[in-house]
Backbone:
């Protein structure tokens, strides 16, 4: 199809149970294997993730241009992706999360858009579940809903356009040579900040609806709430490190938590104030829940908890943002946190 050597990459921490499916997706790609490098980075896993990587390398090394297994002792996402960039040799570097699935034409479709001149590409990213149970279907509905998640283009766009960021992106190597590496002092927002620097460096990020990948929804309420809290925390902390890579909609749950707290403080004026505030919130929540439930082919009684689930997600995200903002008072960002590393010339 082209002379592009591609590096298909993922990093993982304790993903022994799930990573095999993604590795099978790598094997199934329609793009020529002799033009495909696989880069697998283990983030100091304590289960058998690294052993899965090494077994895959041993069994399939001869099929691909190369298979690299590397380590990320720092564990954090940004450090793992910087390891990917440093050890990979492809012209195009693919960032694929361990909790993901990709169809067989994923690489081929990305490369096609790079041949048309795009330098960073990605596509839509629906959420999926690993087991079709009513409860996990409920979690999926919450994660997929506009009310429960976000308005990001990669969730629902149907037109090709240039956007602020994409999920499971394919980057031309020169992009990192000019824009720099991921900021290892950021947690959940390292990709937002990287996308900002890519745009500042003069590149465009193209969302292409014919490129599809899938992200596994957290398979328990505890994990989902922990994820939302962490996302909110890093939104709050990133505000002082690079405010241009967060948007107002990132602070919607924080505004909700502040509004709820303020309404409770105003109870002495009238007990109706918090009741009206929560009543309006749950009215919107119920309308969005009904819309989500109506779109389901099969209906289950557990779907009725969806308004409450939305409430918990928003509280956790908003509380996380509050904690992130508070951390700025306790530990203001240092100059080092804002320093960007670059690939050696």
Residues:
């Amino acid at each position: 199809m082209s002379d592009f050597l591609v590096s298909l990459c993922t990093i993982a921490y304790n993903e022994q149970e799930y990573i095999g499916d993604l590795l099978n997706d790598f094997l199934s790609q329609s793009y020529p294997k002799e033009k495909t490098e696989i880069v697998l980075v283990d983030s100091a896993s304590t289960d058998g993730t690294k052993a899965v990587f090494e077994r895959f390398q041993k069994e399939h090394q001869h099929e691909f241009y190369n298979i690299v297994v590397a380590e990320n002792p720092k564990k954090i996402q940004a450090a793992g992706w910087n390891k990917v960039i440093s050890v990979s040799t492809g012209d195009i570097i693919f960032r694929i999360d361990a909790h993901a699935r990709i169809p067989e034409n994923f690489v081929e479709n990305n490369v096609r858009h790079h041949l048309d001149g795009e330098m960073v590409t990605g596509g839509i990213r629906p959420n999926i579940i690993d087991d079709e149970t009513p409860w996990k279907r409920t979690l999926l509905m919450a994660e997929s809903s506009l009310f429960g998640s976000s308005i990001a283009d990669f969730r629902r766009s149907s037109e090709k356009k240039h956007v602020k960021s994409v999920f499971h992106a394919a980057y031309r190597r020169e992009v990192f040579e000019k824009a720099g590496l991921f900021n290892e002092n950021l947690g959940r927002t390292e990709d937002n900040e990287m996308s900002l620097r890519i745009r500042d460096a003069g590149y465009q990020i193209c969302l292409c609806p014919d490129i599809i990948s899938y992200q596994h929804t957290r398979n328990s309420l505890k994990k989902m709430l922990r994820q939302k809290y962490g996302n909110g925390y890093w939104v709050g902390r990133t505000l002082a490190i690079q405010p241009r890579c967060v948007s107002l909609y990132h602070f919607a749950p924080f505004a909700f938590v502040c509004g709820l707290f303020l309404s409770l403080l105003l109870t002495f004026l009238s007990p109706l104030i918090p009741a009206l505030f929560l009543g309006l919130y749950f009215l919107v929540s119920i309308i969005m829940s009904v819309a989500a439930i109506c779109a389901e082919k099969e209906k289950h009684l557990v779907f009725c908890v969806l308004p409450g689930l939305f409430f918990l997600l928003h509280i956790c995200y908003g509380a996380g943002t509050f904690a992130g903002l508070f951390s700025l008072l306790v530990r203001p960002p240092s100059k080092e946190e804002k320093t960007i590393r670059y690939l050696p010339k």
Q: What stands out?
A: Residues 260 and 274 are 7 Å apart (CA to CA). The first strand starts at residue 6 and ends at 12. The radius of gyration is 21 Å.
